[in-house]
Amino acid sequence: VMLSSHLISDLAHVCDFLIVIVGGRLRLVGDIDDLLAQHRWIVASTDDAARLPVGVDVVIAYEQERNSRLLVRTADQLLNPALMTKPVDLEDLVLAYLETKARGDAPMRTGRT
């Protein structure tokens, strides 16, 4: 069964799998629980945010005066005490992927090799 809706909170209650298509392009796909586990908000100083580990993809970043708020996707734990992490909810996740398309952004690879 496929359900299409703009009411994201409703989707969270009845769906197990999520596909986000924007402008005819696949932006996000996967099991909702897995996607939520792979994404998190990070709040950090601008300098610390610029030095994320290898394998961390920045979906969207909001810059403020002295710090940054980033939605990131990573399979690894972020153990740096300078990075404050918070869980993401389904609505934030979907809206961030929709906003990156509107802003012309794509998820960015960060970290040093």
Number of strands: 7
Share of helix, binned:
25-40%
Oligomerization category of the chains in this entry: single chain
Spatial separation of the terminal alpha carbons: 42 Å
How much is the radius of gyration in Å?
A: 14 Å
Order of helices and strands: HEEHEHEEEHE
The biggest beta sheet reads: 5 strands, antiparallel
Mean pLDDT: 83
SS element count, helices: 4
Helix vs. strand class: alpha+beta
Spatial strand arrangement across the major sheet? 6-3-5-4-7
Shape: elongated
- Low-confidence segments, given as residue ranges, are 108-113
- The percentage of residues in β strands lies in 35-45%
Q: Outline of this structure?
A:
28% of the residues lie in helices and 35% in strands. By secondary structure, the protein is of the alpha+beta class.
Q: Any overview of this molecule?
A:
This protein is 28% helix and 35% strand. It is an alpha+beta fold. The longest helix has 14 residues, at 90-103.
Secondary structure: elements and pairs:
Elements: H1 8-14, E1 17-22, E2 25-31, H2 32-38, E3 39-45, H3 46-49, E4 57-63, E5 67-73, E6 84-87, H4 90-103, E7 108-109
Antiparallel strand pairs: 1-2, 3-5, 3-6, 4-5, 4-7
Any key phrases for this structure?
113 residues, alpha+beta, five-stranded antiparallel β-sheet, 4 helices, 7 strands
